[in-house]
Write a structure and sequence with these properties.
The complex is a heterodimer of chains A (about 240) and B (about 300). Chain A starts with a strand and ends with a helix. Chain A has helices spanning about 40-50, 70-75, 95-105, 115-125, 140-155, 170-185, 200-205, 225-230, 230-235; strands at about 1-15, 15-25, 30-35, 55-60, 65, 80, 160-165, 190-195, 210-215, 215-220. In chain A, the strands form 2 sheets. Chain A has a 6-stranded mixed β-sheet, with helices on both faces. Chain A is globular, with a radius of gyration of 18 Å. In chain A, a hairpin with a 2-residue loop joins β4 (about 55-60) and β5 (about 65). Chain A has 9 helices and 10 strands. With about 300 residues, chain B is mostly helical. Chain B has one domain (about 35-310). In chain B, α4 (about 85-105) packs antiparallel against α9. Classes of the chains: A alpha/beta (about 240), B mainly alpha (about 300).
Amino acid sequence: MPIIEGERVSKNFGGLAAVVNVDFHIDQGEIVGLIGPNGAGKTTLFNLISGALATTAGTIRFKGENITGLKPHQICKRRVARTFQSVKVFSNMTVLDNVLAGSLFGASTGMRMHDAKAEAMELLEFVGLSAKEGSLAKDLTIANQKRVEVARALATKPELLLLDEVMSGLNPTEVAQVTELIKKMRDKGITVFMIEHVMKAIMDISDRIIVLHHGEKIAEGTPSEIAKSQKVIEVYLGD
Amino acid sequence: MDIIRSNPERFFLLVLSIFILIILAIIPSYIADYYVSLLVSIFKFTVLTVSWATFCGPTGYISLASAAFLGTGMYVTALIGEKVPLPLVVLFGGLASFLLALLVGLASLRIRGIFFAIFTLGLSEGLRHFMNWWEISREGRMGRWVISADYLTIFYTMLMILVMTLLTSYLIRRSKFGVALQSIGEEEEAARHIGINVNAVKVITFAVTSFWIGATGGIIVTQWLYVDTSTAFDVSYSFTPTLMALFGGIGQIYGWVLGSVVFTIITELLLTEFPYYYMLIFGSVIISVFLFFPSGLVGVVIKWRKGKLVE
């Protein structure tokens, strides 16, 4: 059974169709990549799933429940978390407090401050930021700020995690580390839907890839199928 | 590490606060009436500032509606003061402000930054003009007589409201709510996506902190015997809390308290000692503090303590 599925999902901004009749589904435990040229509607699709934007048409179901039109905090409580393309950490809060905020709110309710702190520390260890717990988030490198976002998202206890370009701007070593991290999350039972421009990484890690172009889904399949797809090659390289 | 460092400090602050509270509770019998009324004035501004800063400090939403809440409390007393016992009057004053803040909050959910500031200022001024129009054209009067309370009743009521305000602020800040408010101030969108019901947190905090401003208006007005719209909704009550909080240091409760106390005393001193140069001197003091210590009096304290550590 798919953990999340979209049926003819569309979003218009005035006259601009950003996402057009997109059908998608992601199964429990999968890592699915979402690729496409700039302006293809990838982040818009994430915004629709996470409730940041309202759909113009179509339905989105999470574990069979219709979540279309729910507010971001309601969707988070149903265990869908996300990170942001342009990093949105709480700059003037410590790294620990960033993650703590996720633990205190998120899907769990009534967690005691003491337990939430212990859990936040564990998550910082998980993403490799234990040494930075006391630093202000704004003082971290972009790579580490992205880790903070991942830890904060994990703290909300998601079953589905939407990663919006967590690897962009990272050096090859960091990309390898994040790849490992994503595999570790999958092993913990978290389903991952990720937008990425770093092709090698997404080809290596994804079980399946969905390609968007001008808001439409033009291809879907395993990484090797996508790499061979004439349509995808045309879109990326021009004809 | 953080906990080890802050705990003895917290204990010291607790002991200090209780000590100050006891002194304040017994002091009226030992000092002249003038100083009692000065203390009441300090309490009033501290409540205004702490209430204002509890919401506006962490979220960065600058509200200029404090005067509306204070004036509402005053008018509640003017309207029902003779029919209802005083404690209830004060409570109703707070409740009316709470409801007004709830409405303002709901109406301004989508407005941020400078627009929120202007919107709240407009609301506050709009309310004053509406009340003015109502009183003159509907009731045929400029102002209203209010019941008077003796100065000790006013003193102890204000002291109680002050303690409640500080307690409210402290509890909000150290709970989940505090984390939520700070997250909203930092990145509202991210806050929504980690499960914080941003709208509810904003509106409720705004309303709860406004309760104590209304209660203050309800008791303060009994000093005056008479109230009209221009004294009740005096726009300076909207700006002073902002100034006092920044003057003291926006990040800490003790900064807000320090700011209100020092600010009120300086105002009073200058007004009585140098009535002609009051504005000039006061302006220079404020400018120097902001220029040399952008984080307010708290910044001075921190610098001084750092200096001591170096020695």
